[in-house]
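Is magnesium ion placement plausible here? Inputs below.
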Amino acid sequence: MAQSLNFLAPPPPIRSLLSPSPLLLRPLPSRLRLPSLPRRAILCRASADNGSTAAIAPSPAAAGIDVDAVTEAELKENGFRSTRRTKLICTIGPATCAPEQLEALAVGGMNVARVNMCHGTHEWHRGVIRAVRRLNDEKGFAVAVMMDTEGSEIHMGDLGGAPSAKAEDGEVWTFSVRAFNSPLPDRTINVNYDGFAEDVRVGDDLLVDGGMVRFEVIEKLGPDVKCRCTDPGLLLPRANLTFWRDGSLVRERNAMLPTISSKDWLDIDFGIAEGVDFISVSFVKSAEVINHLKSYIAARSRNSDIAVIAKIESADSLKNLEEIIRASDGAMVARGDLGAQIPLELVPSAQQKIVKLCRQLNKPVIVASQLLESMIEYPTPTRAEVADVSEAVRQRSDALMLSGESAMGQFPEKALTVLRTVSLRIERWWREEKHHEAMELPDVASSFSAKISEEICNSAAKMANDLEVDALFVYTKTGHMASLLSRCRPDCPIFAFTSSTSVRRRLNLQWGLIPFRLSCSDDMESNLNRTFSLLKARGMIRSGDLVIALSDTLQSIQVMNVP
Ligand SMILES: Nc1ncnc2c1ncn2[C@@H]1O[C@H](COP(=O)(O)OP(=O)(O)O)[C@@H](O)[C@H]1O
Ligand SMILES: C=C(OP(=O)(O)O)C(=O)O
Ligand SMILES: [K+]
Ligand SMILES: [Mg+2]
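Reply from A.M.:
I modeled the complex. Tokens:
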């Protein structure tokens, strides 16, 4: 255990400065080496390499309960307390879309696989989604699938197929709304928004990806806008564009673009047809669009229940934050675009505020973007990145997300390992310091019955801490009671038993929940007995373990030792 959490490993590896990747923009700092994958992951791999799935497939004794092999191994090896509470999301891209790469990420702790509709074709996305489903079916994982809409903000085209282009200081580039045949003329960038050439003015600052590269508008010629590079850097395909005038973000007619574009609606239909678990809406401005999408989903997909996540990544979304979060099933602190819309130094406090509000309103919250950005190119993170990850864990956000690190980086599995080890380390530190975070949790119940469930969860979480129980067991149909328990961020893990595979996958996004699929009845006694014998047979609990069990149908709470 200790070894998998230890960053203070042997001396840094020596890297060659002579083989820079195209993204290499600065000197290589010396870094610490990553810890190796913990033993459990290697065990799973070894069994897969043997062509056998013994360590992963459910054993016959456990028929009737679904739990993934990673959780099972973790529980067996480290006991209840050491299970990871912070959930991990990986954006899937060219670096991770092969079935064996997806499996390696699942083994490494990926709880949710994210596909970003900004990139790739439906064919490509379908392949990924189905590969994740197959992995779940064949290997017992419960990896959920999240789909992000593109949104209709302004961005560049795809550079005529080039992976990147370098803009040097003082160079003049043309940003154009014309449709070109590829290859594009030299130093020319396509812009996706037709009103661009009319909206910008000479003298505006044009920021690529929130300032990674900066230009000044020097001349407008019909559809072409000539810009001089003032901060050089690397242009990446489909990078986001914002323009600023007198130090403020310009919201001209582009502010009237719909949050969900016609292309997004096609992508949403695709997501519904493929049965994704979450749809994350880019550039949400108000609660209205969330409500609109939720009623569309409800009408289109009667059997499945897709959760809608609001991406908080614009100045408008911050203005209407509370109503947006109330309307959504969760939120993402999408720091990439957020940092292009508000001054960078305001991003950390916005993050803290969003994380806190989500927990108060009982909505899962994801901290996203640039957590381990340098690991796109290097095998070890910077100290600052480790500190950033630690801070998001310390804030008790539900989930951390990798973007480019896993989609197109050179070290996707290592980046995931860093998220996992840093999360585990901070969480262990809480236990060592007996560090409880008292947060006032306002009532969220909308009916008397819901109020009872909420009170039960608040009390159960407090009892769990006071009695130092080993685990909370919650039997839940919709997942709501599991979510209320998670909101309390108790010291022990929460085993959530549900008969629905889709509820099980969705719960995988939430802090501290270990979701199991089990066909539950309304008879709590028999549910408990079955659970105890199934989990005991798998060595995941032992006689004498102390648990608190809750049921959402009975609204009951019991404290007991495993017989
Ligand atoms: N499906 C995909 N196909 C190709 N490249 C992708 C895909 N998904 C992500 N990427 C790459 O990973 C990078 C980071 O992903 P993400 O943060 O989700 O997108 P963006 O940078 O557009 O906000 C993207 O800029 C793109 O280069
Ligand atoms: C997560 C984000 O959105 P995307 O990667 O889709 O731009 C972000 O902007 O931080
Ligand atoms: K997006
Ligand atoms: Mg974004």
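Short version: The longest strand covers residues 213-221.
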